[in-house]
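Why this split exists: single-chain examples teach little about how molecules sit against one another. For that reason, every record in the complexes split bundles all components of an assembly together and asks for one structure covering all of them. Below is a record exactly as it appears in the raw files.
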Amino acid sequence: MKWPALPRPEGRQFIIGIPWFWLALFFLLPFLFVLKLSLSESTLAQPPYLDIVREFKDGLVVLAINLGNYELLLEDSLYVKALISSLEIAAFSTLLTLLLGYPMAYAIARAPRHWRLPLMMLIILPFWTSFLIRVYAWIGILKNNGLINQTLMALGLIDSPLEMLHTPFAVYVGIVYSYLPFMVLPLYATLIRLDMTLLEAAADLGCRPWKQFLTITLPLSLPGVLAGAMLVFIPVMGEFVIPDLLGGPNTLMLGKLMWTEFFSNKDWPLASALAAVLLVVLIIPFMLLRHFERRSEEAQ
Amino acid sequence: MTRRSPLLLSVLLFGYAFLYGPIISLMVYSFNESRLVTVWGGFSTKWYFELLDNDQILGAAWLSIKIAAVNASVAVVLGTLAAMALVRYGRFRGRATLETMVTAPMVMPDVIIGLSLLLLFVSMERLTGWPQGRGQTTITLAHITFSMAYVTVVVRSRLAHMDRSLEEAALDLGARPMKVFFAITLPIIAPALAAGWLLAFTLSMDDLVIASFVSGPGATTLPMVVYSSVRLGVSPEINALATIIVVIVSLAVAAAGLLMYRQEKRQQD
């Protein structure tokens, strides 16, 4: 659908220009500062880094580019391990979210019409309440004298508490719990638009329900699956709160490491180099997300 | 659902139990007499009174509310402009960049947004002397930047689906575009603006990571206080605070849902 352009070209310039420049200034430009700082040296000062462009008293301007931060990231196995572990955690938790989110989205899309809106509202509602507090709620449930262990011990199923908090298990629970709405929303949007006549035709021709699902529903909902997967994968790669509160000291993730470098070690340049690496890693998944979003816009 | 599969239904039920169980457990334990959060010591509302006496939490909550309200109001204006540009102006120079810039803040990890904005503010202060130091202003600017992306999504879908015949009729009758926007377009998209404002408000009230990066000494928001107390373990006061937040949000969302439901019904009748 194409709208005729509104008259008054000067108004048009403002409507496009104001949000454009705001985002260019506060969203795009800052990335250049991250790149610049990742090439500088850290020092004990306020702010704690040496600018890469330095001017001396005699008017000499020196460009001091320091690749040491990136060398350190490659040399110290901690950072490489953190990258691999972030990729693993993000990929596996995306899969888990999909396994829970797909049947939920499917059931809601196939529910009676007047049930769909309230059911979707119930999916979105937790997203509106504090993320931090929802993650915190799991501490009380998973800890050694928490709800799960107390219940299991009262039932006599276990003798000593199961170690759950500060383990990878707790991190996965926290991620699936927090990011489930991001998976269900795009899945629901694709499943609700699915042409039901295709399924009816297949059924009339004797196709069994599970085969209908595998050959028709699943392939047609693939754009929703991939959009949902990217909506979970990308932010989880840099997640800080969940691994910090629910994970243990051995839970290595880039977001948590960046936080430590920045706040505890006050090493701004190294934190910037980590951010730059994370940014580069996320470019491909982000392009994928944009691709599927554009496709679903065109479909509408 | 033509055939109700019991497996599908049980996954759905499990999913909702998974989403709501932890929140409900927090709410129940906020009324627990005992400080040992997991041991039930009888019903009590004392943690709510202790919360009211906690000046640090109240001060932080007030700062967060101020930031969230300013943030939401500016984000609604900017987000609506961005949505208008994307829906109404077809192809224009810089469209692809604008599309990317309104999508990216929603998925970009908070640690990256926080660090990059802090570096921007530090450099800006060095070059221009503004913003002086970091605190309320820098947190608000940072929040507007990511909130406006969410507002854009909400307003954009409303704009794309609205019936334009009223606007065209008004233009044909000689109304000026500004007048058409304020008299016709704005009332039609008002529910989306309200939803966008509320969303921007809650996102700001909820942000820990970005605010921690761009804040300075003296500006402590509610999530920062909650985080530092939660790191020390489970606290009944935080449970009480969580209960209050959940109740307020649920009431607001339920009211909004009811409003949408009635509107939809009226349209169908």
